[in-house]
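Box 3.1 A note on notation
Throughout this textbook, protein chains are presented in two layers. The first layer is the amino acid sequence; the second is a token string describing backbone geometry. Keep the layers aligned when reading.
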Amino acid sequence: MNIDIVGMMLEAIGTICIAIAALSVNRQFLNEHRIDSKVLRTMRYEQIIGIVGIFFVISGFFLQIVVKA
């Protein structure tokens, strides 16, 4: 597989992970109307997904830079 394609895929997956993390916490909070242990657990999980997403975006960016150079 071409490294440029891998870079684009990682960037896309990372962007989707960050979007899912942001939307899930907001939806959970709107449904519960309060912050309890379930909401906090979801926030921690979504925080991890967001961090992984950021890692994918950065990795994809650097892979694309390496291919272009």
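Helices lie at 3-32, 37-68. The chain is about 90% helix and 0% strand.
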